[in-house]
Amino acid sequence: MSAAIETPGVHVASSVRTDAPPAIVLDKVNKWYGAMHVLRDVDLQVALGERVVVCGPSGSGKSTMIRCINRLETHQEGHILVDGIELSDDLRALDAIRRDVGMVFQSFNLFPHLTILENCTLAPIWVRKMPKKHAEELAMEYLTRVRIPEQAKKYPGQLSGGQQQRVAIARALCMKPKIMLFDEPTSALDPEMIKEVLDTMVMLAAEGMTMICVTHEMGFARQVADRVVFMDRGEIVESGTPDAVFNDPKTERLKLFLSQILRGH
Amino acid sequence: MSDITANTPIHGSSAPRDAPMATTGPIAWLRANLFSGWLSTAVTLLLGYLIVRAVVGIVDWAFINAIWSVPLSPTGVAQTQVCRDLQGAGACWAVVTEKHRFMLFGTYPYEQHWRPAIVCLLFIGLYIVSAMRRFWNWTLVPIWIVTLTAIGILMWGGVLGLPYVPQERWGGLPITLILATFGLAFAFPLSILVALGRRSSLPAIKVLCVVYVELIRGVPLISLLFMASVMFPLFLPEGMNIDKLLRAQIAIILFAGAYLAEVVRGGLQALPKGQYEAADAMGLSYWQKTGLIILPQALRLVIPPLVNTFIGFFKDTSLVLIIGIFDLLTAGKTAIVEPAWQGFGVEVYVFVGLIYLCFCFAMSKYSQGLEAELNRHRRR
């Protein structure tokens, strides 16, 4: 991966829309697991079309933070606004948010008892109430975009990890989300499959999708991120452009983290 | 990394080979597994001898020396002396020939036996249709309603020119099939709701489900049946009476429901958390998530223990004998109370046992096929 840092791909042009209201606002968000304080006063604003990469050591709260955004985890203090709607116990608001926020997991989480096509059409049919035929056309379109239309009739267990993750991306896209969350999408993959998934994500970024991506793929961060956020022990420690964060770390914690990442690869 | 590359020959990477031959014919198999040494040969011969003796004995008893019918005395009493003279050397199948109608249909009026006979066939037809995946849609609902209505009309009568037969006179196989079918048809959905309730985030529902399961599981089925038959009527207002069979049926449903709920819960727990999260993240509602993602996977996982419990309950319906309901087993037992037939219990129990075996074996075979079929997606 160090090679990717030295020779990053062509940077994807920024599509940040500063004129529109922010897509996501986290305002002094706090969360505890029992006595453990896992998110501490997290403040983050993501503009429409902005691509944010979140990095940090394991246990730093980065996954917890993005899982709070579609309420797979609940926060105890502070406010989270997605697309102008505040996350609360109001289930109707939550449904509206989840319809517009796609998520890709580290472990893919495809539904093993459904075919690839059924995985992709399930939510459009049941949540968006789309006619089946229309949903299937849409699914085939996205499967073509992630370059696996020929696997549509297979079951997830018959695909490689990289293919499964691309299906997971297509499945999320079938809901035509406004925002995509990626929770370490390449961490469970064999090295030779990481690139195919990252390529898909770069393609998505180039289309102007608002994205928050938890990843350690520094090459990807440099290529697509408008902003890199570094988290440690539940706090946002530094944030800035990829260049500023990677080349000119201000804090000891970030310096330590970067040196470990580079040594690791 | 570099070490491995250095030691691995770059050239000569061979084409994929076939797996080595595993089988070498029946003779070689026999020699390797049964006659590999003197001890193994001795054990093989000894066991072979015992097996042959046992098979010959059973064939002698059940077929060669067996008596299939006995004459009736002028007063209509079976003359079973021939059977008694055998002194156990052969089976007296005459008891089955003579008494099979009583065993199958109990005390149901003799000239009306065609009605419970059709009921049994209707039940079997219902099982076969329900087992076919082709019918796994809404058409099954009217099929069940129509069949069960027909069964009710046939058993009770009182309409369409059929004489009325009170429930106290029903007996035999129809009772067993009624108890088992209604029992499992209601207990299974109940168990799914209870299993889901036990994992609910709403404390009241959760506590209710836990209490139900623990309470029902904590007492024997027999005591539940007693309660249903003796205690329950005491709580009913004067003059109101619920049919004894229905009370036993409810006890069986509640009992089976508690056991099945724990089996289903096992399946729910075996599913990775990611499946729930992926469904949530897509915006599926609770019931969509449960019906489309969770249950289809969880129930497939627990087909073996589920069918195990089904088979267990099919046989447990025979416990209703203690509250005086004439199911198949009780009818068989009663058939040999008559002095002429006393002492021929083995033949009767073999006959009744074979009927139970047919149903249970069919369930078992069907579930194996279903398991293979539904878990297709796990094959590579």
Automatic annotation (TrEMBL), chain A:
<dbReference type="InterPro" id="IPR003593">
    <property type="entry name" value="AAA+_ATPase"/>
</dbReference>
<dbReference type="GO" id="GO:0005524">
    <property type="term" value="F:ATP binding"/>
</dbReference>
<dbReference type="InterPro" id="IPR050086">
    <property type="entry name" value="MetN_ABC_transporter-like"/>
</dbReference>
<keyword id="KW-0813">Transport</keyword>
<keyword id="KW-0067">ATP-binding</keyword>
<dbReference type="InterPro" id="IPR017871">
    <property type="entry name" value="ABC_transporter-like_CS"/>
</dbReference>
<protein>
    <submittedName>
        <fullName>Amino acid ABC transporter ATP-binding protein</fullName>
    </submittedName>
</protein>
<feature type="domain" description="ABC transporter">
    <location>
        <begin position="24"/>
        <end position="258"/>
    </location>
</feature>
<dbReference type="InterPro" id="IPR027417">
    <property type="entry name" value="P-loop_NTPase"/>
</dbReference>
<dbReference type="InterPro" id="IPR003439">
    <property type="entry name" value="ABC_transporter-like_ATP-bd"/>
</dbReference>
<comment type="similarity">
    <text>Belongs to the ABC transporter superfamily.</text>
</comment>
<dbReference type="Pfam" id="PF00005">
    <property type="entry name" value="ABC_tran"/>
</dbReference>
<keyword id="KW-0547">Nucleotide-binding</keyword>
<dbReference type="InterPro" id="IPR030679">
    <property type="entry name" value="ABC_ATPase_HisP-typ"/>
</dbReference>
TrEMBL record, chain B:
<feature type="transmembrane region" description="Helical">
    <location>
        <begin position="171"/>
        <end position="196"/>
    </location>
</feature>
<feature type="transmembrane region" description="Helical">
    <location>
        <begin position="141"/>
        <end position="165"/>
    </location>
</feature>
<feature type="transmembrane region" description="Helical">
    <location>
        <begin position="248"/>
        <end position="268"/>
    </location>
</feature>
<feature type="transmembrane region" description="Helical">
    <location>
        <begin position="113"/>
        <end position="129"/>
    </location>
</feature>
<comment type="similarity">
    <text>Belongs to the binding-protein-dependent transport system permease family. HisMQ subfamily.</text>
</comment>
<dbReference type="InterPro" id="IPR043429">
    <property type="entry name" value="ArtM/GltK/GlnP/TcyL/YhdX-like"/>
</dbReference>
<feature type="domain" description="ABC transmembrane type-1">
    <location>
        <begin position="173"/>
        <end position="367"/>
    </location>
</feature>
<keyword id="KW-0812">Transmembrane</keyword>
<keyword id="KW-1133">Transmembrane helix</keyword>
<feature type="compositionally biased region" description="Polar residues">
    <location>
        <begin position="1"/>
        <end position="11"/>
    </location>
</feature>
<feature type="region of interest" description="Disordered">
    <location>
        <begin position="1"/>
        <end position="20"/>
    </location>
</feature>
<dbReference type="InterPro" id="IPR000515">
    <property type="entry name" value="MetI-like"/>
</dbReference>
<feature type="transmembrane region" description="Helical">
    <location>
        <begin position="348"/>
        <end position="366"/>
    </location>
</feature>
<keyword id="KW-0813">Transport</keyword>
<dbReference type="Pfam" id="PF00528">
    <property type="entry name" value="BPD_transp_1"/>
</dbReference>
<dbReference type="InterPro" id="IPR010065">
    <property type="entry name" value="AA_ABC_transptr_permease_3TM"/>
</dbReference>
<protein>
    <submittedName>
        <fullName>Amino acid ABC transporter permease</fullName>
    </submittedName>
</protein>
<feature type="transmembrane region" description="Helical">
    <location>
        <begin position="208"/>
        <end position="236"/>
    </location>
</feature>
<feature type="transmembrane region" description="Helical">
    <location>
        <begin position="38"/>
        <end position="64"/>
    </location>
</feature>
<dbReference type="InterPro" id="IPR035906">
    <property type="entry name" value="MetI-like_sf"/>
</dbReference>
<keyword id="KW-0472">Membrane</keyword>
<keyword id="KW-1003">Cell membrane</keyword>
